[in-house]
Amino acid sequence: MPETDLPLxxxxxxxxxxxxxxxxxxxxxxxxxxxxxxxxTEADLAVNAVLxxxxxxxxxxxxxxxxxxxxxxxxLSHDTVFIIDPIDGTRSFVEGGKTxxxxxxxxxxxxxxxxxxxxxxxxxxxxxxIGGGAALNGTALRACDNAFSSTTTVLxxxxxxxxxxxxxxxxxxDLHYRPSLAYRLALVGAGQFDAMLTLxxxxxxxxxxxxxxxxxxxxxxxxxxxxxxxxxxxxPTLNGVVAGGRTVQNALVDRLEPAPS
Length: 261
Known about the structure:
Helix content is 27%, strand content 26%. It is α+β, with helices and mostly antiparallel strands. The protein has two domains: 2-140, Fructose-1,6-Bisphosphatase, Chain A, domain 1 (2-Layer Sandwich); 153-255, 3-Layer(aba) Sandwich (D-Maltodextrin-Binding Protein, domain 2), CATH 3.40.190.80. It has a seven-stranded mixed beta sheet, sandwiched between helices. Strand 5 (101-108) and strand 6 (111-119) form a beta hairpin.
């Protein structure tokens, strides 16, 4: 049941964090995935393995979607699935940085019901359960809901400001960046930034846990068109993501062009 999943996710995240930090970043074996899909390390695979064992042993009836497990259609026959990114921000991990996260979520009939995002090197554990609020290390979170202006703080990669993405002139705001999408979402849920956006097709495992942290902290999250997010899709991607306090989030979505076909 969803109300019992969050403690499981917290325990699994802490186990996975110990596994991840047993590797030494730049010294970990690293290679590039096919088709320009980015780097992967032996730590990613080790974390994936321990999460698979821990979570599926505890919930054998749940399906499984992870960046580091070859996907198949079996998960589509499950009402409830785990959605996992073993290390979100692998480039930061490889460089010996601290801004990488372990992202774990449960989706039931397309909706995220429990989530944990752990940054082991920063001792930061973001958690959320549906109807139960969001927290950082046990302290409740609340997203900002400020008016949109040129001082609005937005977490996004610079290519998102390309004029082709926007109706008319791109809006002016205070741009910031963090390597991990899950961490960006958690920071917005914590009220440290007004919004985040990523306008490319986004993998579900990058977004799932952070999406619940946003909404349980009182924020709003949709795809780039303003449509609600749904998870465990046949092709596990989302049409971009825009998240923030309701006022800022709505303002950003209103200014965006539809994704090019």
